Amino acid sequence: MAAPRFHTLEIxxxxxETPDAVAITFAIPEDQNDAFAFLPGQYLTLRADIGGEDMRxxxxxxxxxxEQGRRTVxxxxxxxxxxxxxxxxxKAGDRIEVMPxxxxxxxxxxxxxxxxxxxxxxxxTPCLSIAKSVxxxxxxxxxxxxxxxxxxxxxxxxxxxxxxKDRYTTRxxxxxxxxxxxxxxxxxxxxxxxxxxxxxxxxxLIDPASxxxxxxxxxxxxxxxxxxxxxxxGVSDDRIKFELFTxxxxxxxxxxxxxxxxxxxxxNGATHGASVDIILDxxxxxxxxxxxxxxxxxxxxxxxxxLPYSCAGGMCCTCRCRIVEGSATMDENFSLEPWEIEAGxxxxxxxxxxxxxxxxDFDAQ
Length: 365
Ligand code: FES
Fold this sequence. Notes:
6-stranded antiparallel β-sheet
């Protein structure tokens, strides 16, 4: 299977969600329906030239599975976020490069289930897609959404959420937790952390133990705290999915710091670059990679190659490839499963050669 590639899509609509967040809807031409087929919970990677830099960022789809011909993402402006700031200036009719849906934080729609969704801030976007898709596609399932924000002004997709509440009165429960605004029900005030979740469970507002699937999306501390709380309440790992929602710090894949050997060289000990063969779309090209200063992705980018990537932070798996020969070590890995590492997969945005020769196949699935 070919590595994911960008397509140019036209923006059909832009809607202000909060003072610092917009919902951007892309029109999907009929001949690209298959390429942009998705599972609820997946994201799109957007790409733009901003100030002469090739920048890309991933934003979760908030559309329901049942919606045809359109995909909407939510983009919240972050402090000093060049791409998220740029995204706020987009308007209907603009055209932008978009990579087909990716991601493993997904729900397979069908059957009868009891879902618990835990979202913080812009982490609502994939949870909204899951909630809408489940409620429309699983008539006997129920969804409880616990949504944490600073205050009511920062609540994204308020209209969509109220609409779900009105439409699915017996199957959808929405609970807002706010830490900078006092709500009438005392227990709903404060941060969404392990203590809060335990308290909500002890008051019968959530029931993780009887939930079939729990989806958690937000900043890393919230995910860790919520996962710990769920485990303490007897929820097995296989029922918990989480999406690490941390924006990449820089525009281009960075040469992340890496522990060096005592001699100051990379752990492969090479004073020269390792020779790395890259197989992509059936073609092979060889580049030099100095493990002390570059990941495979950053070296390939410097060499003018256009490898698939999105977060450049070890979180999304867009840059996944298989080691065919040699070995490499990843700086970070937040996304590859143990079986994938066992099968020889690595993340090129994190991989540094351990051997003088390395062959990586981006076409391997
Ligand atoms: S680009 Fe996201 S994990 Fe490598």
